[in-house]
Amino acid sequence: MFSGHGSARRRRGRNNRAARIAIPVAAVLALGVTVGIVVGASGHGTPKLRSAASSGSAGVSSTAVEDTCDIIVPAHPLTAKGLATAYQLTGPAGGSPAATGCQMINSVNLGAYVQATILDTQTGALSVYNPLVITQGTTPAVAPVVPKLPKHAIVTIDFGFNGTFLLQQGATSDALSQGKCVDGMPGSPFGQVSFCNGINFFNEAFRLEREGKLHIPSPGMSKNIVPSAGALGTGRECPTTRNFDMIDQDPSDNVTTKYLLNPATGQTAQDDTANAARMKGAQVLVNGSDNALIDDFLDPALDCTPFMAPDLGNHGAMTTSQALDELLAAKNQPANVALVPENDEMVLGVGDSVDTAKTDLYRAEIGQAPVDSQTDASSSPAMFCQNMVNIQTAFIAANEKIFAAWPSPVPTVGDTLFTFMANRLASSFDNLNCANFGLHQTVTVVNNGAGAATEATLSDDPQEVGF
């Protein structure tokens, strides 16, 4: 666990955060995902929030916006009581929420999100619970639901963030050790993401799969997908988070959690049906997430269905989670599997050096195999770039008609799902420095006056790395 405050050196001035998934209300309503105004986004070009007075919060706006925040993890975070205790978002190094902008009302820039996935080790049943994050100094708009955990439960907790670095701090001196929580290597945090107990969760899940006690479905087949030339991608099989069809420069990061925000007080609540009915006019906060992209946009567009489990905080309604997506992806890995590469910003070490131990730690927390000759065949820095360029370019080009008819996750990045995906791929190529491996950019975009892609041309001629 990294407990210091390192330099936020890697993402400043880069455009990758702009391609994160922020679900605007028009797209949400078109999908029927939820009803409300979406405040979630990421990218550093978004306007700062205006000042707002409130009796329910400890200063709900800020004139200063940090790119780093702390999240206070409750004691015994893997228990029902710990899960139902609100996590607290606050400024780094003792800075107040108001002084730093580390507030949930500032979710577009600095919102934090927590998601738990639960496995019953006796039955193999899976479930999800989304712990609440509040701004330090506030109280929940509605008290969190206390989940009823199975007697033999093992829990993994995933964290997501719309800023740059989210650093874990314990509410008690041993809270982080109780939860087996990590946010990177000493002096070198992952960035937006961190984890609690992921290694134990996935080890147990894979053991139960081998014993036939846990059954993970196939991703299904799509009648909509147009297979790309050479069948390098998924063909007609629905993509997962380990398919080069859909990954970006930092795959398998962030969560599908949503919260409700009272904009007058800055207070948050879990996003469940009862709270939505009670909190009229509440805004829906979302995390910029690869998982939300595939679960809420690509799957519906391609006539696919995400892997879901009952939500213990919402009367058992079926829902998605990052860990469920990873279980599905692990069970159905393609030959060209997309694993977190060593040139992913999240796993670069001090001085932006390759750090295999940090990459292995990140991978282990989401159930991925460590760096070795076998995984390097598809996901070394060079091969990740080559596969991304060859497979995803062809996939997007082949399915242009489908994606062009679908709403954009982030209209400020692309005006349709097609232009969004194309622009995201172009940014990933640049952010991974794929040109260093003798590859060339495959995407050309035309932007409107606001900087959003309105046209995209893709060149899908196969390439090979060369130095």
Structural features:
single chain, 467 residues, alpha+beta, 5-stranded antiparallel sheet, 4-stranded mixed sheet, 14 helices, 17% strand, globular, disordered N terminus
Kindly describe this structure.
The chain is of the alpha+beta class and 467 residues long. It has one domain (16-378). Helix content is 25%, strand content 17%. The strands form six sheets. A five-stranded antiparallel sheet has the order 5-4-7-12-9. Helix 11 crosses helix 12 and helix 12 runs antiparallel to helix 14 (417-431). The protein is globular and about 55 Å long. It starts with 24 loop residues before the first helix and ends in a 9-residue tail after the last strand.
Spell out the blueprint of helices and strands:
Blueprint: H1 25-31, E1 37-38, E2 68-73, H2 80-83, E3 87-90, H3 97-100, H4 107-110, E4 112-120, E5 126-129, E6 133-135, E7 153-161, E8 165-170, H5 175-178, E9 181-182, E10 184-185, E11 188-189, E12 194-196, H6 198-210, E13 258-262, E14 267-270, H7 273-278, E15 283-286, H8 290-301, E16 309-310, E17 318-319, H9 322-331, H10 356-365, H11 373-379, H12 381-398, H13 400-404, H14 417-431, E18 443-447, E19 453-458
Parallel strand pairs: 1-15, 2-8, 3-6
Antiparallel strand pairs: 2-3, 4-5, 4-7, 7-12, 9-12, 10-11, 13-14, 13-15, 16-17, 18-19
